[in-house]
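## retry 2 of 3
previous attempt timed out at serialization; input unchanged, resubmitting
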Amino acid sequence: MSVVIVGGHDRRVCQYKKICKAHQCKAKVFTKKAGSLGNQIGRPDAIIIFTNTVSHQMVKSAVTEAERKNANIIRCHTSSGSALHEILENIKINQ
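## retry succeeded, writing output
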């Protein structure tokens, strides 16, 4: 399974990737707007948006790409590691 994380803190990128690896997920993390998001995300199964730490423009771009690529959109207000653990567990249960 592959996920894209939009938002979060720069200093937690490695932590996010380790958590995803522990859940057998490939992860791409975008904490800041960098070029065209559509060309960089590929075809993920889910896009996780940490809404507290991301701009409205980046959320809009992520949602547009998720709809184009038929990916699930998961919004979470907190950007903690435990929130990511919980999201990934819920994804596994629902598959």
